[in-house]
Amino acid sequence: MKKAFITGITGQDGYYLSKLLLSKGYQVHGAIRRSSSINTSRIDEFISEHKDTGMYKLYYSDLLDSSSLSSLISETQPDEIYNLAAQSHVAVSFKNPIYTTQTGTVGSLSLLEAIRNIDKSIKFYQASSSEMYGGDTDKPYNEESVFDPKSPYAASKVFAHNVNKLYRDSYGIFGVNGILFNHESPHRGETFVTRKITKAVGRIYLGIQSKLTLGNLDASRDWGFAGDYVEGMWLMMQHKNPDDWVLATAETHTVSEFAKLAFDEVGLDWNDYIETSDRYYRPNEVNYLLGDYSKAKKYLNWEPKTSFKNLVKLMVEKDVEQAKKEEILIKNNLLKPTWENPKT
Questions:
Q1: Tens digits of per-residue pLDDT, 54-113?
Q2: Range(s) of the domain holding residue 143
Q3: Residue positions annotated with a catalytic role
Q4: Domain with 325 in it: what CATH number?
Q5: Exposed site from 68, 84, 175, 259, fewest CB < 10 Å?
Q6: Residues 238, 106 within the same domain
Q7: How far apart are CA 61 and CA 54, in angstroms?
């Protein structure tokens, strides 16, 4: 039985990767950060299902606590480590650059050092990001494209990406870099623009929100489904040799396109509900990202299964259902709306 250790297990990718690995018979170990509030809502189904099987185990740790991470690796003896944890919101990284940079760099380095000192046969996956490219060209980015980070988050990802290659070349560690373009789902954090849009669509459709304020509507991204992308992560780790891999859809769409499709799903005109504000613009905008996943297709036999339109549909449907639950709670005075422009 294979064992995997996942940092960032409570996030969107942690959810989908947990689901995939459990379906493949892995024993899954995950590190969660101790906080005053419980944040395991995405993975509670796995915790409940496997509470007596020993197949899904969580541990308190922190990317900034290298001794704790090393102890956990020594204790769990995983075959594969997936480093998904980070302060991953780009806009927030400008407001909190020190913490963002520390988690993005120290965490990766601590895990690589643990592998080097404990067992160099452990395979390591580093979650790199399309944000590393900077988006100054309208040409597709691939594994050979130059990095030009435009945020503290992206800069920290470049460091982690490069240090993983350094350990791969210097110590023979099976270090994989997955350069994933934007990937979304109903489990995406609610502060990310795609989920912010679909949450608002559900609430506006039910009449419990009136408007939605966004930033740069012309920003263009290569958006895919997170469930497809974690399959690519796993395939990278099964490849004969460690390498760097781009996962993308080879399509790019603007924020306004995403918004239009989302409102179309419920029969509304997006122009009637969306406003823009400079406060949602980044200090250094990334305008255009388009990925070339031809290497992953050729050598991993991976390609995205979910179309852009179906991704938007999936997210809207889930958030309409969530809005219906919120509507009931509001009517029974069990919920006070905290979102933008509530109708109460």
A1: 999 999 988 888 899 999 999 999 999 999 987 766 777 777 888 888 888 989 999 999
A2: 3-184+223-247
A3: 129, 131, 153
A4: 3.90.25.10
A5: 68
A6: yes
A7: 19
